[in-house]
Amino acid sequence: MLVAAAAQAQEAPPQANAPTANPTAKATVDQPAPPADPTPDANANPDPTATDAGADEIVVTGIRASLAKSAEIKRNSTIIVDSVSAEDIGKLPDVSVADSLARLPGVTAQRVEGRDQSLSIRGLGPDFSTTLLNGREQVTTGDNRGVEFDQYPSEFFSNVNVYKSADASLIAAGVSGTVDLRMLRPLDQKERLFVVSARGQMNGIGKRNPDGQRYGYRATATFVDKFAGDTLGISIGLAAQESPTNYDKYEAWGYPGLNDRNVNCDAAGNPCLLGGAKPYVQSNLLKRYGGVGTIEWQPSDSFHSTFDALYTHFEETQHLRGIEFPLGYNVAPNPGSVTVQDGYVQTATFSPQYTVQRNDLNERRADMYSFGWNNDLKLSDSIHLNVDASWSHANRQDELIETYSGTGYGGTGQRDTITITRQNSGIYSIVPTLDYTNTDVIRITDPGGWGYNGTTAVVQAGFQNRPKFSDDLKSLRASLAGDFADLGVIRGWEVGANYSQREKKAQYTSYFYCPSGMGTGCTVASGTTTSIAVPSDVVLDPVSLGFIGVPNILALDSRGVLDLLTPVFDNRPESLAKVWGVKEKVATGYAKLVFDGTAGGKAMKGSLGVQVVHTDQSSDGRIAGLNAGAVTLSEVSGGAKYTNVLPSATLSVELIPSGFVKMGASQTMVRPRLDQERISQNVAITPGNVGRGSDPLNSPFSSDGGNFQLRPYKSTNIDMSFEKYFPGGGYVALTGYYKRLTDYVDPNNNVLYDFSPLLSSLTPEQQAIVRAQNAQNGLFKLPANSGRGEILGAEATLSLPLRMLTRSLDGFGLFGSGSYTSSAVRYDSAPADTQTVPGLSKWVLNGTAYFEKWGFQARTTYRYRSSFLAEVRGLSATPELNTAKAEGILDAQIGYEFQSGPLQGLAILAQAKNLTDQAFYQYTNGDPRQVRRYQRYGTDYYVGLTYRF
């Protein structure tokens, strides 16, 4: 929790402690401010010391005001916190919430589809943090718990706080940290406000698909006013956005050995050959519409009520077009065409070679609602009662369409000759000889003959996957807080309880699509038509894969192609087992003592508390498998109950004037991914493995599923921070932290399981062989809390207005941070092997240089992160982890605000994102030369106007 002691309020008389659950409580010298609203008055001068000798006080705005307000939040907090504050009503410093947070010490963002979307805090990915809205836990439109920050319009928030240490009253704290999104409070404003803004966007890389878009816009409006003698306040915000992204995309299938293509390469003895690749060009269009509203009522000093509402509607359309080249996994290179350098094939030619041309369409629709009602009642001069109720809900529906074309079914038809050449970046140029725009050659078909329904081959000319998610969270919290009159530095107390119920459901429905005409069930054996001609009415302007060396290819209307085909339900066990639901009922009780006073002549503040968290979790789902060629499906459910005790302590001591030492010790926990808590299983029976021996890896039986008894990750945390705040504004901070992780989830855990009940699915002869070899014992893959580890790190931050050095630099300033994090995670299954924590970059560096004066403002920001394990959607929307290369991103903006005359209130702003055109790379097997993914997004440009009435 925060302990506020604003410099201008140091002589305020003692006031009663308000419960820290209160999202609208105001901070006083004796009152611990809640994580809900530590922001100073948005219209107050955030830097009261920034004055010229003999001159009137200087009121700073924009960038400098944002930094000053963030510094004030950090200074007044007893826990370790970093913040981003709005430069003005409805304007965080960057294009998105994630962009802004990625400038904070120890915080990094992973780019997904060209946007900063998922956050890592102190080396731990989005699965290890918790996101709050006005102090309340939120649902997400994502597949699991990790919040996709682009679902929130940045214009809706006055500040965003990242709490890096814990307090007993901070419910749902994460292991890595807690992100709290703070909405504007209307009673804090001194006057009526009406602000409108509009901004245009342009992709520098250009439109990549004929049905893509290069230009976008963003428009917002905010209204704030007070009534009834300033006891009733309202704020309303509206936002609309259409944001395009275009990029080049390359994926390598893998790297078999040149001399033995059945195994992975060894750069020394078995040179690395490109096994296959699929280059694409992709065009995305994100549409987001939303609104927020707040009603705040404080009829007296004894009662304060606040109601918040937020709604966002999210649509995204993605057009992908490219070609898959099987290459080394399909055929050996032509003799004499291969050159090798440093263990890697540099050039090679493949013929005869078939290819698979792709025209894909992905669409997502999501709606998110969030409501919260907080009431704070002063029961006496020293006791407050706070009651807070909230509900958030999200629905998401995806449609992922794949369509295929080539010269003929299953490698028939005209073959190609393809030459590959390795580039310095590690990706390969791929030059074909066929004309892939010629509809006399290219047909709608299953060119690789890859279609398989689990038992027999099908003609898969298209595929449709329709994942659907719902996420619902209800919460009720009550707390009492009060003062002690005569206990010295023990100033106050707080007790409270929170009950929440969350339920997330996932349902996947998928279909094979084959050419209409002959056959049944799309099966090859039934005589299904294997290909059809490409009709002219689905042909669009061709697209170029020139970035990889492929000239123009056919661009088809993906949905139009699907309309030409016949759907057949996909009832493979691995598809049916993706239906699940997880419910969590969590009761949390907490108590803490609040310290505030003087010890040894030094001002000190802090708290000592404990949380007791009882969890009742359950899951419903399916066990799906194949038995004698028939799909079996069983509905199952299960659950578990457990209790965790989480102590915490915080302390802030002012050792020297404006110089603080802050310490924190706590135990925290964060729940595992929801899909890991599912009960569903996919049981596989492989008769071909009969007779291969007793090794469980060769058993004809196996299963892959979740673990409904999975427990949360737990962490014992030690934090220490040294902070010095300068008289003229700015500060320097050095923070160290240690986390001891226990109950760490091993997602690849396997246990030995006796599958004897499934022996009846085999023939009598096969059963006898399995029993004789004791091969009925196979592997059951399910996540388990079998890991442990440590994280050790340090952060340094400098906020420096250069006016401190000389008046001639007034208006100029620097803000920078750097962090180093080391980690080691081990699983019981392989205690000698050290695992990499997803999302962890050992080095994270951020630097901002700015100027702001006379209405002008300019800023450049550079962000660097070293390599890290990044999660990206892989085949069939399955999460896939690979190492991402280090990257540095440069952003810039310039603007002017008219401060007088007829245009007063008008501001002009221009921004550029990713000026260095930094591409995103992933690689495999710990070798940066084995590029798994490459994505180049280009630079985005923005120009906008804001008018404040």
Automatic annotation (TrEMBL):
Provenance organism: Sphingomonas citri
Protein name: TonB-dependent receptor
Keywords: Cell outer membrane, Membrane, Receptor
Low complexity: compositionally biased ranges: 1-28, 39-53
Domain TonB-dependent receptor plug stretches: 74-176
Taxonomic superkingdom: Bacteria
Gene3D superfamilies membership: TonB-dependent receptor, beta-barrel domain (2.40.170.20), TonB-dependent receptor, plug domain (2.170.130.10)
Main location: membrane
Pfam families, per database record: Plug (PF07715)
Extent of Polar residues compositional bias: 696-706
Entry-linked NCBIfam families: TonB-Xanth-Caul
UniProt region (Disordered), positions on chain: 1-56, 687-706
Subcellular location: Cell outer membrane
